[in-house]
Amino acid sequence: MDKNLLLQDVLNHLQADLEQASRAALTAHEAATHEENVAENKYDTLGLEAAYLASGQARRVEELRQTLITWRQLRPRPFVEAQGIELGALILLAGEDGHEQWLFLGPQGASMKLQHAGQSIQVLGNAAPLGRLLLGKRPGDEIRLPMGQRPQLFEVLAAE
Fold first, then answer.
1. Which GO terms describe its molecular function (predicted)?
2. pTM for this structure?
3. DSSP one-letter code for 41
4. What angle do CA 60, 130, 128 make, to 5 degrees?
5. Is 112 helix (H, G, I), strand (E, B) or coil?
Protein backbone atom coordinates (compact mmCIF):
# COMPACT_ATOMS: atom_id res chain seq x y z
CA MET A 1 0.00 0.00 0.00
CA ASP A 2 1.18 3.51 -0.74
CA LYS A 3 1.40 5.34 2.59
CA ASN A 4 1.62 8.73 0.87
CA LEU A 5 -1.73 8.11 -0.84
CA LEU A 6 -3.16 6.96 2.47
CA LEU A 7 -1.87 10.15 4.11
CA GLN A 8 -3.57 12.18 1.38
CA ASP A 9 -6.85 10.37 2.14
CA VAL A 10 -6.47 11.32 5.83
CA LEU A 11 -5.75 14.96 4.91
CA ASN A 12 -8.79 15.08 2.59
CA HIS A 13 -10.99 13.65 5.34
CA LEU A 14 -9.67 16.16 7.89
CA GLN A 15 -10.17 19.03 5.43
CA ALA A 16 -13.79 17.98 4.86
CA ASP A 17 -14.33 17.77 8.63
CA LEU A 18 -12.83 21.25 9.05
CA GLU A 19 -15.09 22.73 6.37
CA GLN A 20 -18.17 21.13 7.94
CA ALA A 21 -17.19 22.31 11.43
CA SER A 22 -16.54 25.84 10.09
CA ARG A 23 -20.03 25.97 8.59
CA ALA A 24 -21.52 24.74 11.87
CA ALA A 25 -19.54 27.35 13.84
CA LEU A 26 -20.74 30.12 11.54
CA THR A 27 -24.35 28.99 11.90
CA ALA A 28 -24.01 28.80 15.70
CA HIS A 29 -22.43 32.28 15.80
CA GLU A 30 -25.25 33.72 13.69
CA ALA A 31 -27.81 32.14 16.02
CA ALA A 32 -26.04 33.50 19.11
CA THR A 33 -25.95 37.05 17.75
CA HIS A 34 -29.39 37.12 16.12
CA GLU A 35 -31.72 39.81 17.47
CA GLU A 36 -34.45 37.25 18.20
CA ASN A 37 -32.16 35.57 20.75
CA VAL A 38 -31.77 38.66 22.93
CA ALA A 39 -33.00 37.78 26.44
CA GLU A 40 -36.38 39.28 27.30
CA ASN A 41 -36.04 38.41 31.01
CA LYS A 42 -33.64 36.64 33.37
CA TYR A 43 -35.20 33.25 32.59
CA ASP A 44 -34.77 33.54 28.84
CA THR A 45 -31.54 31.59 28.18
CA LEU A 46 -31.84 30.86 24.47
CA GLY A 47 -29.17 33.44 23.58
CA LEU A 48 -26.82 32.16 26.29
CA GLU A 49 -27.24 28.58 25.11
CA ALA A 50 -26.54 29.61 21.53
CA ALA A 51 -23.39 31.44 22.69
CA TYR A 52 -22.14 28.30 24.49
CA LEU A 53 -22.76 26.27 21.35
CA ALA A 54 -20.93 28.83 19.19
CA SER A 55 -17.98 28.79 21.59
CA GLY A 56 -17.76 25.00 21.48
CA GLN A 57 -17.98 24.97 17.70
CA ALA A 58 -15.19 27.55 17.46
CA ARG A 59 -12.97 25.38 19.70
CA ARG A 60 -13.69 22.35 17.50
CA VAL A 61 -12.70 24.31 14.38
CA GLU A 62 -9.41 25.33 16.00
CA GLU A 63 -8.67 21.74 17.10
CA LEU A 64 -9.28 20.51 13.55
CA ARG A 65 -7.04 23.25 12.14
CA GLN A 66 -4.22 22.23 14.46
CA THR A 67 -4.72 18.54 13.66
CA LEU A 68 -4.58 19.29 9.94
CA ILE A 69 -1.35 21.29 10.35
CA THR A 70 0.24 18.45 12.35
CA TRP A 71 -0.79 15.75 9.87
CA ARG A 72 0.45 17.83 6.92
CA GLN A 73 3.93 17.72 8.48
CA LEU A 74 3.96 13.90 8.59
CA ARG A 75 6.38 12.30 6.12
CA PRO A 76 5.86 8.53 6.10
CA ARG A 77 9.12 6.62 5.73
CA PRO A 78 9.79 2.95 5.06
CA PHE A 79 9.78 0.71 8.13
CA VAL A 80 13.23 0.18 9.64
CA GLU A 81 13.45 -2.91 11.87
CA ALA A 82 16.11 -1.37 14.13
CA GLN A 83 13.93 1.66 14.90
CA GLY A 84 10.65 -0.18 15.23
CA ILE A 85 7.24 1.33 14.59
CA GLU A 86 7.15 5.11 14.37
CA LEU A 87 4.75 7.77 13.09
CA GLY A 88 3.71 7.09 9.53
CA ALA A 89 3.88 3.31 9.94
CA LEU A 90 1.29 1.00 8.44
CA ILE A 91 0.80 -1.91 10.83
CA LEU A 92 -0.96 -5.26 10.57
CA LEU A 93 -2.20 -6.43 13.98
CA ALA A 94 -3.83 -9.70 14.99
CA GLY A 95 -6.06 -10.03 18.04
CA GLU A 96 -6.30 -13.09 20.27
CA ASP A 97 -9.23 -14.30 18.19
CA GLY A 98 -7.11 -14.17 15.03
CA HIS A 99 -8.92 -11.13 13.64
CA GLU A 100 -6.46 -9.03 11.63
CA GLN A 101 -6.64 -5.28 11.16
CA TRP A 102 -4.53 -2.65 9.44
CA LEU A 103 -3.60 0.50 11.35
CA PHE A 104 -2.00 3.72 10.10
CA LEU A 105 -0.18 5.43 12.97
CA GLY A 106 0.19 9.19 12.92
CA PRO A 107 0.11 12.22 15.17
CA GLN A 108 -2.81 12.72 17.52
CA GLY A 109 -6.16 14.06 16.51
CA ALA A 110 -7.26 11.95 13.55
CA SER A 111 -9.16 8.83 14.44
CA MET A 112 -11.04 7.48 11.45
CA LYS A 113 -11.58 4.38 9.37
CA LEU A 114 -10.70 4.56 5.67
CA GLN A 115 -10.93 2.25 2.69
CA HIS A 116 -7.65 2.15 0.79
CA ALA A 117 -6.42 -0.32 -1.85
CA GLY A 118 -9.28 -2.67 -1.00
CA GLN A 119 -8.44 -2.72 2.72
CA SER A 120 -10.16 -1.22 5.73
CA ILE A 121 -7.58 0.84 7.63
CA GLN A 122 -8.00 2.33 11.08
CA VAL A 123 -6.18 5.65 11.40
CA LEU A 124 -4.79 6.01 14.89
CA GLY A 125 -2.98 8.79 16.72
CA ASN A 126 0.12 8.27 18.83
CA ALA A 127 -1.70 9.66 21.89
CA ALA A 128 -4.30 6.86 21.82
CA PRO A 129 -3.53 4.00 24.24
CA LEU A 130 -2.90 1.51 21.43
CA GLY A 131 -0.89 4.08 19.48
CA ARG A 132 1.44 4.67 22.46
CA LEU A 133 1.94 0.92 22.91
CA LEU A 134 2.82 0.40 19.24
CA LEU A 135 5.68 2.90 19.14
CA GLY A 136 9.02 1.07 18.92
CA LYS A 137 7.47 -2.39 18.43
CA ARG A 138 8.47 -4.80 15.65
CA PRO A 139 6.77 -7.68 13.84
CA GLY A 140 6.45 -10.59 16.24
CA ASP A 141 6.06 -8.36 19.32
CA GLU A 142 2.98 -8.72 21.49
CA ILE A 143 1.03 -5.84 22.97
CA ARG A 144 -1.17 -5.95 26.06
CA LEU A 145 -3.86 -3.25 25.98
CA PRO A 146 -5.60 -2.74 29.36
CA MET A 147 -9.36 -2.96 28.82
CA GLY A 148 -11.44 -3.30 31.98
CA GLN A 149 -11.11 -6.62 33.81
CA ARG A 150 -9.26 -8.46 31.05
CA PRO A 151 -6.57 -6.89 28.86
CA GLN A 152 -6.67 -7.41 25.11
CA LEU A 153 -3.64 -9.04 23.52
CA PHE A 154 -2.40 -8.21 20.03
CA GLU A 155 0.50 -9.41 17.93
CA VAL A 156 2.25 -7.20 15.41
CA LEU A 157 2.23 -9.28 12.23
CA ALA A 158 3.79 -6.76 9.84
CA ALA A 159 4.88 -3.14 9.60
CA GLU A 160 5.56 -1.03 6.55
1. translation elongation factor activity
2. 0.82
3. S
4. 20
5. strand
